[in-house]
Design a protein that fits this description.
Elements (H helix, E strand, L loop, with lengths): L2 H13 L2 H4 L4 H10 L21 H15 L3 H15 L1
Helix pairs in contact: 1-3, 1-4
């Protein structure tokens, strides 16, 4: 993953509710903050859906991984995510 993608992820996570952020392992948050570009602010409009923004592919992959591994509440939700990811591969 490139530094720009880490910067985008870090910016997005700053906007995420603390309840969700607290579900992410500290080591992963530390990695994101270590790998991001220090003096770069991504051009992300928090009022627009992420799918409408020009984000790095790696940013979207990382966020999908976070959703699946940290934010899904149950096996059914994880299965739904896997089905969406499979459809997107086609």
């Amino acid at each position: 993953m490139n530094a720009k993608a880490y910067s985008e992820v870090a910016f997005i996570l700053e906007c995420v509710d603390d309840n969700l952020k607290n579900k992410i392992p500290d080591t992963l948050l530390e990695l994101v903050n270590k790998k991001k570009i220090k003096y770069y602010t991504p051009n992300i409009d928090i009022n627009k859906p992420l799918c409408e923004q020009n984000l790095e592919h790696d940013t979207l992959v990382f966020l999908a991984m976070l959703y699946y591994n940290c934010w899904c509440e149950n096996a059914n939700e994880k299965q739904e995510i896997l089905e969406i990811l499979k459809m997107n591969e086609k």
